[in-house]
Design a protein that fits this description.
Structural class: alpha+beta
Helix content: 40-55%
Largest sheet: 8 strands, mixed
Strand order of the largest sheet: 1-11-12-13-16-10-9-4
Strand content: 15-25%
Number of strands: 18
Shape: elongated
Number of helices: 13
Length: 423
Amino acid sequence: MLQLNIIKENPKGVTELLRIKNFDAEALVEEIMELDHRRRETQKKMDDGLAEANILAKEIGILFKSGKGEEAGALKERSAVLKKETQSLGIILEETKSALDEKLVLLPNLPHPSVPAGNSEEDNEVLVANEFKIKLHDDAVPHWELAKKYDIIDFDLGAKVTGAGFPFYKGKGARLQRALINFFLDEALEAGYSEYQPPLFVNEDSAYGTGNLPDKDGQMYHIGEDNLYAIPTAEIPITNIYRDVILGQDSLPIKNVAYSSCFRREAGSYGKDVRGLNRLHQFDKVEIVQICHPERSYDTLEEMRIYVASLLEKLELPYRILKLCGGDISFTSSLTYDFEVFSAAQKRWLEVSSVSNFEAFQSNRMKLRFRDEDNKTRLAHTLNGSALALPRIVAALLENNQSETGINIPKALRTYTGFDLIS
RNA sequence: GGAGAGGUGGCCGAGUGGUCGAAGGCGCACGCCUGGAAAGCGUGUAUGCGCCGAAAGCGCAUCAUGGGUUCGAAUCCCAUUCUCUCCGCCA
């Protein structure tokens, strides 16, 4: 949620910046300014009324104590009137506040000035392209066929037991999953992250905190009986640790890593994009989250970008890094780098990580603050990124490393898998 | 799932319906004292919103959360939630 102060200070600037995200904010900003004005006006009236009522109550108390109870009658009458007035003002205030909030959450985060304009993924800026040549033999096949051939992932079995998009990993396929998780976690620890194992379900407050509600309501699995949401990413529990928290001066930066299963309904997805491991309802991911001083957040973003790239290097996967354009960047992000690996048999790029700086957008909604050098409370900046999401990594590993004899495991993973070939 | 006890500032902990944002202690910060430190002494030490752009000041709200009773609620009532104890069930 965008900070009200930023909008009030420079409504035109906000509208201008949001054009880069192809968002027309003009009417919305105007409404917000108006609602804010009404809110302050109402609160002033109510506070004054309450102040008078407080004074009256004290006077009545004194009268009663000194045995002049009869004299309190008139004051009581006035008090009753004030109560009615302040109560109805209170209702108006609450209505105005929630109307203001409803409008505020509709505004996307401001893009960083470096974000290129654009409408779709075509306009993303390719920053790094590490496309070392992959030579596949003539009978090279996509990963879903390899999965069947070597009996390492069973989509049909998953469909029988649960539904489409919930595969079983078997034998060396299961061990490869476990190896990747451990590899990613160990690398993150090495890079100074603290490991968490989060709950896989969160409550409503947490889903709001990171902005998944009300935005992506239909995209999360929801347990109605207990009103809990299955997490689409570990970002939600890990970031919400700091909801309504004021961090001490020395606690920044916070670097957390968590492995979790992720659950996504992916309503509306279909076609060849969702074939095999390309898009699942349940998948595994290692997520990194940082909370840092506002002045450091872009350095931190670069640090995270380099870190994620190093993982792909170690896995010897051809990848590229995209700086997302205004039209493709998410609602909550100021600046996002997408990482894509090349899937040789499908001949297409698959997104495996998205590293974003949210600046104070999440913190503002979550009330995540810290004490700065002057001991004042300020909103911290939050960042996160996948490091990495497993399924598409597995897809690329299988396809790119297939040979006549089997699938070769990259060196960095062999100590984790305990085997160097799937055959 | 059943029964009971409880939730007060960063922490501990007091609080009879009235001047309680809340005693006292610990912690922390600053100052005095000291050659330096400890001890001791003194001062300060919540958050949000509003008056107003900032500071100072003032006002309002906040004692788990949300309602209610009352001129007045940390205190009384109701609901929710979380923690603890016992019983039941259980990896």
